Amino acid sequence: MTLSILAIGDSYLPAADMARALESLADLGAVRYETVDIDDRPELAGIHEYQGSPEAVSGWIADADVLVVHAAPVTRSVLEAHPSVRLVACVRGGAVNIDLAAAAELGVTVINTPAKNAVSVADLTMTFIHALFRGVGPATSWLRAQSEAGDTHLDSTFIGGQWIAAEPRGATLGVIGFGAIGQRVAAQARFYGMRVLAFDPFFTGQTDLADLVTLEQLAAESDVVSVHAKETAETRHILGAPFIARMKRGAYVVNTARQSLLDEAALLSALESGALGGAALDVVEPDGLWPQLVQRADVIVSPHLGGATRQTQERGLEMIVADIRRFAAGDPVTFRVA
């Protein structure tokens, strides 16, 4: 089957990076590339986390059979205006910028790249856990203050004695959400000698990586809690005041999943009172309390670095390329979401 493929890049996954993987599809047909204007972002219902406008996307499609997107919006209007489009390949774990209901109604196949970032997010999560246990935040904040005060000498032989901390070995990690990422975090934690508890009402399999417990037990027994649950109405603020109140005094919180899972006001209150010992956040509410949180030595805030690795992008594009080939051959695609 010959295909006409349009790939649309954005600020996170540029068209040039797409091209390095998609050029392998040249035997299937022509591949064209465009890039969204990140400042052209109208309010759209039914999709979120997008860059660019449906009008721009529609203007590029022409007779394309396949759209490859990362952040570009693919709305009902786009699909209705271009019946030639038979496959939309979204290089993301969740195709939130695609109108999946419209695609299903119009007979358009949509594929995504689930768990492409599982390795990198698990790695970052463990990095955060080590940093919290070792007190890296307070120690580096102290050192920065010394520099700003004009100090030029550092006794690096013995100064670490002021920052004696703990190793994670022997501590208990609580994992909320035991999917691909949660399981990888558990495996890494066990490698470092941690006891692992997990809560996931949707996990029905068997595992040697963690003890499956209630949310209440996980809160009460964990020295650090890492959340990896999906974003739903039920999981909103799962790490909220009631949960935090059950946690050990001085315990830590890590969120490398979705900002809605954590009540930032409850977290800040617990940090100010000393109920919690620290937190590491890779996701924050856009207009939330991150300006106050980032000023604290006991909090690590990063700008959503979890999946921001070259390898994650390469894995996602490899998954998309393989499924496009399956589609072209008339075989079932592996990562279909609509």
Radius of gyration: 23 Å
CATH structural class of the largest domain: Alpha Beta
What share of residues is helical? 25-40%
How would you describe the shape?
elongated
- Helix/strand/pairing class, anyone? alpha/beta
Number of strands: 12
Task: Report the span from N to C terminus.
Answer: 21 Å
The third-level CATH topology of the largest domain is: Rossmann fold
Biggest β-sheet, characterized? 7 strands, parallel
Written as H for each helix and E for each strand, in order along the chain, the element string is EHEHEHEHEHHEHEEHEHEHEHEH
Question: In DSSP terms, counting alpha (H) and pi (I) runs of 4 or more, how many helices?
Answer: 12
Strand ordering within the main sheet: 8-7-6-9-10-11-12
Mean pLDDT: 97
Overall number of structural domains: 2
Low-confidence stretches: none
Q: Write out the CATH superfamily name of the largest domain.
A: NAD(P)-binding Rossmann-like Domain
